[in-house]
Amino acid sequence: MSGQLVNFSRHPFAARGAEAHPHIPEGSSQLERICSRLREVTNIDFSHYKHATFARRIERRMNISQVQDIQEYIQCLTQSSREAEALGKDLLIGVTKFFRDAESFRVLTDCIRQRFDQTPDGQTLRVWSAACSTGEEAYTLAMLCEEIRAAYRPRVEFNVFATDIDKSALEIASAGIYPRSVVADLPRELLDRYFLQDGAENFRVIRSLRDRLIFAKQDLLSDPPFTKIDLICCRNLMIYLRPEAQRKLLSLFHFSLTPGGLLFLGSSETLGDLSYAFETIDSKHRIHSKAAGVALRVSDAIHTLDEGSLWTSFVDDHGTRTRGRRSATNSSEAIQQHLLKRFA
User: Rounded to two decimals, what is the model's pTM?
Assistant: First the structure.
């Protein structure tokens, strides 16, 4: 083992340090081959990732595999599905925790309370945790909603739709069982109220809270979104995406939200060119709402379209996709119908 560690430390990539990365020109055939192999093995399209993010993850895997040449690494990916899966896992970057950025969640709590106040008795508040990873943020949202519902609006229900592209992460999220180290940052009263000890070192989400969540596998940039949503939480995904993918994602979220619906982003993420379609509630904590009466420009709405598609596709409240047909009678209606055709 000591000899292996010495050899690893002398490897060219280890000696160069973490900041350098193999020269892979953006848009090169090498990058296309890697993306193609990843799609083949993982069924995930990573071409929307920023070039620098992609290159850093490739370097990390080359370093671990002790491969110095990019062509040699492509050959390794071609011959080894396991290595392709490992690179795909690295690219998914599933970093999450309960109440990540606690101050932001304190501000969000007041915003959620206002949405509960605006929701009539007997109606259901709809929350979407997009790119939920292993579920900590989705359960955080569910706990916040339950605390508010129980204290202020017991006649208003809520559901949390939690989606991710990573099947293995969703399995952890759906099980709702976390080790002691993961729940350590939870306030003690919330841990006691919403978790049961499961063995010596694990804690399990109680059934009544777990039943509030619906988990589903979803590629945000190609699969249909949920609709009539009161709050979307998508944090620290867009920072890894190319600008055109960020724009498409924001236009999808705009389509999904009800007027005045909340959008909660990561601390380094902005609305970019779509800021005109949202109102900023708290710029520091990246909390926005869908502006009432503001439609997306055609140039922005077009990012949500699958040109030429004749099929409607939408996700119902159980995470099930449904298909059908629609038609449009004029150009302005056609834009809306194109959105409905795909996302209803």
Answer: 0.82
